[in-house]
Design brief:
The protein is of the alpha+beta class. It is built from 13 helices and 16 strands. The two termini are about 35 Å apart.
């Protein structure tokens, strides 16, 4: 279990601006004039019940992920759904760092990775081999789901590794949240080569008896949502379509963007971990070392002069005649 996932911050404590859905949406003409909000996350709660929700819609941020690599269509959908899910889950946490979701597979899909920071900056990448045909389970094979909370300032990370349970990205995450974190969570996710979108509903731990009836009712309403509605409808319109008879409070929009944290210094530290002898051996064969970031595909180049400078500050230490 990840400690921080069980200590969730109430959304009412974090948001200072909100609107009641019934006050905001009063006419069909108002709804028809709405447009989907690009690269945004919006939280909402059900009044008088310990149930919260979130809606995310990604456009430019998602297309930046795809522009960095030539991903096949079958992979785009799974990656997009995992990316939307990462944003939704990161937004439920009081996060000083980032949330990392990984699906590790033994089939054609070897790895899906999405990272989302507490300030809604994301990046994603994938590894695969051969043609991608079949369901998620067929493409991943015997796989693992890994969730990591990476903290800032060299604080220890928290990680949980479980087997994959579910036939979709949404099912995998729902099963994890219920079995490992004891939080009833429902996710609706969709993605294509242009956009990725999703919605989350979650029953908070501080529930009362009447919340069970509300939870059952709102989840039954939510399962009627269609993929095209998740893609095209504005958050207000989507919530009105699903929950217009419920008392829903909608909070202000939060922007989401793509951001890769790779730097030349990070690559240099990686080369130092490889070791001076190995680095010089590569340079003897190729003249330069090229390193591409797996997330943003940025190219870093190191030549012999760079290598000399890199290892100049390292002094070998011998203890008892053995070099360490």
């Amino acid at each position: 279990m990840l400690p921080h996932l069980t200590h969730l911050t109430s959304v009412t404590q974090n948001c200072t601006s909100f609107l009641n859905l019934r006050d905001l949406i009063t006419t069909r003409d108002h709804i028809d004039n709405m447009k989907t909000q690009s690269d945004s996350l919006q939280r909402f709660i059900f009044e008088h019940a310990q149930i919260r929700g979130e809606r995310v819609h990604l456009d430019a941020a998602w297309r930046t992920v795809l522009d960095n690599h030539d991903y096949p269509p079958a992979l785009c959908q799974m990656m997009g759904e995992l990316t939307a899910a990462a944003v939704l889950l990161a937004a439920t946490l009081k996060l000083d760092g980032s949330l990392v979701l990984q699906i590790q597979g033994s089939g054609a899909i070897k790895l899906l990775v999405v990272e989302c920071s507490g300030d809604m900056k994301l990046r994603a990448t994938a590894k695969w081999a051969g043609a991608l045909q079949g369901s998620l389970n067929e493409l991943v094979g015997d796989g693992l789901f890994v969730i990591t909370l990476a903290q800032k300032d060299d604080k220890p990370a928290y990680q949980s590794i479980v087997s994959l349970e579910g036939k979709s990205v949404a099912e995998i995450l729902q099963n994890y949240m219920f079995r490992s974190e004891q939080l009833e969570t429902r996710l609706w996710l969709t993605a294509d080569e242009h956009s990725a979108s999703g919605m989350l509903l979650q029953k908070l731990p501080e529930q009362i008896a009447s919340d069970d009836d509300t939870w059952l009712r709102v989840t039954q309403l939510a399962v009627t949502v269609r993929a095209d509605e998740l893609m095209k409808l504005n958050t207000e319109e989507l919530l009105y379509r699903l929950f217009h008879e419920e008392d829903v409070r909608l909070f202000e929009v939060q922007s989401v963007s793509f951001n890769c944290t790779c730097t030349r210094d990070n690559v240099a530290r990686m080369l130092m971990m490889i070791g001076q002898e190995e680095v010089y051996s590569i340079l003897a064969e190729r003249q330069i070392i090229e390193v591409y970031c797996e997330f943003c595909n940025h190219r870093y180049e190191f030549d012999k002069v760079d290598a000399v400078q890199l290892f100049a500050s390292i002094t070998p230490v011998e203890v008892g005649g053995t070099r360490h």
